[in-house]
């Protein structure tokens, strides 16, 4: 059993500005202004940024838990942005330019939207996994030292994607473009056709995707962000303390230039007096000493990724809560606050996709290898002084 119908639920493509009971003080053109003016530059920038992220991480090599997680996040963010961009193209053709064709463009916009939802949920799951992983490794390293391996991280990401795909599969198979005959023009058009189970999925999605999952993900990411913030503050304070400096100063710095050092790779422990002294410290201070250099940058990158996730998704849950208590504030054409709902959700979607585009700046800031590979994409391959210094540091390590 299937139902052939024009778009009528969860789709801001119908003209409801003159519908009975619609709030008249917010016109249709006002509610769609943010998308019309701002979406395309941000979406194009987001797709370009995530393509660059994937290319750079492939050149670096996705051979550890952090790089494979950030590569997967860039891939999923690209999918999310691409399908949303495609949906906005059909939206503009239908709503702004009033294009009529054999295929109902509003129906295509509605069908494409669910692929965007799929990748968006997968991206949220990966961010939660990254935050929890790094929080556990920093807060309780002994217990989780060998838990988050490369293979387990890849498996977790694949499971997140498969779970989301299984959740949306009934929706993908329950709606399609079906032919309908227009008796006025004696023509046939492809319009939105759906199985009745879609209505059940929409009701479930309102609660699960609208409230339960966002609240859980935001709570976990917020908690992990607080833990990481405390650990970062402790690490920075310890590195700047007189105690840490005293450990380094008490060692004979002439040892660094000793003639006994023939192979710096085999004798690098002599150049790390801070690490040698750490065996005499308690565990918490040893952990703070180790939280430096590359590891510190990784923790900072994860921390700011979590903060960006929280900020860019800050309005999703409040909007759904208001919809529960104000029935007219929802995405049903003809509802009293429909245009207001479209305006608010458009602004929130703008923040969502802006957040996916800004991850590139986090990688540039906290990943030296990423910066070098990114520079190589747009500059000549001639080695610089910093490249030579980096290779020397790797040899010494």
CATH class category name? Mainly Alpha
CATH arch. level architecture: Up-down Bundle
Report the C-alpha radius of gyration, rounded.
26 Å
How much is the average pLDDT?
A: 77
End-to-end Cα distance: 66 Å
CATH superfamily: Rhodopsin 7-helix transmembrane proteins
Based on Cα principal axes, name the global outline: elongated
Report helical residue fraction.
55-70%
Count of the separate structural domains? 1
Strand content: under 5%
Q: Number of DSSP helices?
A: 15
Order of helices and strands: EHHHHHHEEHHHHHHHHH
Structural class: mainly alpha
Task: Please render the helix and strand layout as text.
Blueprint: E1 3-4, H1 28-31, H2 33-60, H3 65-95, H4 105-139, H5 141-144, H6 150-173, E2 175-182, E3 187-194, H7 197-240, H8 242-249, H9 273-277, H10 283-290, H11 294-312, H12 316-325, H13 338-366, H14 368-378, H15 385-396
Antiparallel strand pairs: 1-3, 2-3
Helix pairs in contact: 2-3, 2-13, 2-14, 3-4, 3-6, 3-13, 4-6, 4-7, 4-11, 7-11, 7-12, 11-13, 13-14
GO cellular component, one term: membrane
Organism: Candidula unifasciata
Protein name: G-protein coupled receptors family 1 profile domain-containing protein
């Amino acid at each position: 059993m299937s139902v052939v119908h024009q778009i009528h639920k969860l789709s801001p493509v119908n003209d409801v500005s003159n519908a009975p009971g619609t709030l008249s003080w917010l016109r249709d053109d006002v509610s769609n202004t943010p998308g019309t003016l701002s979406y395309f530059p941000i979406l194009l920038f987001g797709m370009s940024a995530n393509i660059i992220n994937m290319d750079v991480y492939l050149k670096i090599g996705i051979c550890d838990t952090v790089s494979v997680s950030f590569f997967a996040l860039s891939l999923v963010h690209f999918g999310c942005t691409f399908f949303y961009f495609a949906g906005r193209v059909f939206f503009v053709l239908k709503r702004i330019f009033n294009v009529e064709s054999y295929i109902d463009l509003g129906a295509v916009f509605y069908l494409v939207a669910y692929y965007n939802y799929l990748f968006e949920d997968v991206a949220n799951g990966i961010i939660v996994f990254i935050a929890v992983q790094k929080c556990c490794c920093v807060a309780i390293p002994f217990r989780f030292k060998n838990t988050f391996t490369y293979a387990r991280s890849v498996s977790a990401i694949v499971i997140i994607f498969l779970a989301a795909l299984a959740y949306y599969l009934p929706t993908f198979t329950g709606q399609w473009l079906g032919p309908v005959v227009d008796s006025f023009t004696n023509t046939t058009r492809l319009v939105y056709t759906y199985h009745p189970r879609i209505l059940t999925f929409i009701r479930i999605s309102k609660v699960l995707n609208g409230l339960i999952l966002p609240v859980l993900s935001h709570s976990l990411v917020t908690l992990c962000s607080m833990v990481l913030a405390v650990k970062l503050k402790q690490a920075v304070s310890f590195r700047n303390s007189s105690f840490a400096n005293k450990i380094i100063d008490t060692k004979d710095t002439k040892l660094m230039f000793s003639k006994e050092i023939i192979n710096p790779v085999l004798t690098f422990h002599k150049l790390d007096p801070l690490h040698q002294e750490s065996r005499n410290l308690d565990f918490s201070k040893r952990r703070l000493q180790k939280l430096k250099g590359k590891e510190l940058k990784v923790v900072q990158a994860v921390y700011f990724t979590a903060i960006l996730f929280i900020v860019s998704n800050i309005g999703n849950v409040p909007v759904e809560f208001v919809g529960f208590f104000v029935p007219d504030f929802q995405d049903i054409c003809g509802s009293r606050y429909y245009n207001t709902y479209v305006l608010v959700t458009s602004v929130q979607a703008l923040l969502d996709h802006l957040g996916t585009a800004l991850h590139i700046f986090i990688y540039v800031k906290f990943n030296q290898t990423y910066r070098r590979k990114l520079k190589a994409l747009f500059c000549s391959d001639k080695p610089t002084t910093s490249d030579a210094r980096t290779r020397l540091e790797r040899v010494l390590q």
